[in-house]
């Protein structure tokens, strides 16, 4: 069956996005040149420029695609959790599985690069805003709160900050036991009911 132009275009974009993440994780920001990304994707430079006129747009699209895919997997796993399961603990464990991968290392590479690259920083801020909004909705579900509740927003930010820090420690070779203990302590903290 022949694919439509839209299907071919989407396939090319997906290959470029996945090759970008692979290149970032394996070679870092410097090594992930557009030439290397095109080689990994099996796509011409002209085709890449047709879909992503700048490298910053390609990088942002790649991490956005990665986030959507990983967040969808997390949501599916939470939806299939058995009744009575510790959904907060499960959610934190699943989220750590995402953060403890080379794919998250690609995100960290971009965040560091975005510090001195204003164009990239603008694109990454947009991706981060979508990530935080989606995370806040998932966090609200797990906690049984409203996504717009200030406590939900604060817990979401705390979760993201904790996981970013733990992922950085892991990248530097920190002990896995420290990360496990921190996750357990945090799960207990966020599930403790407030008392008046």
Description of the structure:
The protein has 196 residues and is mainly alpha-helical. The chain has a domain at 55-191: Tetracycline Repressor, domain 2 (Orthogonal Bundle), CATH 1.10.357. The protein is 80% helix and 0% strand. It contains nine helices and no strands. α1 (5-31) packs across α2. The longest helix has 27 residues, at 5-31. It is globular and about 55 Å long.
Which labels suit this protein?
196 residues; mainly alpha; Tetracycline Repressor, domain 2; 9 helices; 80% helix; 0% strand
What is shown here, in short?
This protein is mainly α. It contains nine helices and no strands.
β-sheet strand percentage: under 5%
Helix content: over 70%
Mean pLDDT: 86
Number of helices: 9
Looking at CATH, the homologous superfamily of one domain is Tetracycline Repressor, domain 2
Low-confidence stretches: none
Span between termini: 65 Å
The name of the CATH architecture of one domain is Orthogonal Bundle
Radius of gyration: 19 Å
Supply the CATH class of one domain: Mainly Alpha
Order of helices and strands: HHHHHHHHH
Structural class, from secondary structure content?
A: mainly alpha
CATH fold annotation of one domain: Tetracycline Repressor, domain 2
Report the biggest beta sheet as strand number plus sense, adding barrel if it closes. none
The count of β-strands is 0
> Shape, please?
globular
């Amino acid at each position: 069956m022949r694919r439509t132009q839209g299907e071919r275009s989407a396939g090319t974009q997906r290959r470029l996005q996945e090759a970008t993440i692979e290149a970032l994780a394996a070679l870092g920001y410097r090594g992930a040149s557009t030439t290397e990304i095109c080689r990994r994707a099996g796509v011409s430079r002209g085709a890449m420029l047709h879909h992503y006129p700048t490298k910053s747009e390609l990088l942002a699209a790649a991490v956005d695609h990665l986030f959507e895919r990983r967040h969808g997997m997390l949501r599916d796993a939470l939806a299939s959790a058995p009744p009575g399961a510790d959904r907060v603990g499960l959610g934190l464990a699943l989220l750590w599985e995402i953060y403890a991968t080379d794919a998250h290392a690609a995100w960290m590479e971009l965040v560091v690069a975005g510090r001195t690259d204003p164009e990239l920083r603008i694109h990454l801020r947009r991706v981060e805003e979508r990530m935080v909004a989606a995370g806040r909705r998932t966090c609200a579900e797990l906690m049984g709160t409203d996504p717009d509740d200030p406590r939900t927003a604060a817990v979401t930010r705390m979760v993201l900050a904790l996981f970013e820090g733990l992922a950085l420690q892991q990248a530097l070779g920190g002990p896995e036991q420290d990360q496990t203990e921190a996750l357990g302590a945090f799960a207990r903290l966020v599930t403790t009911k407030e008392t008046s």
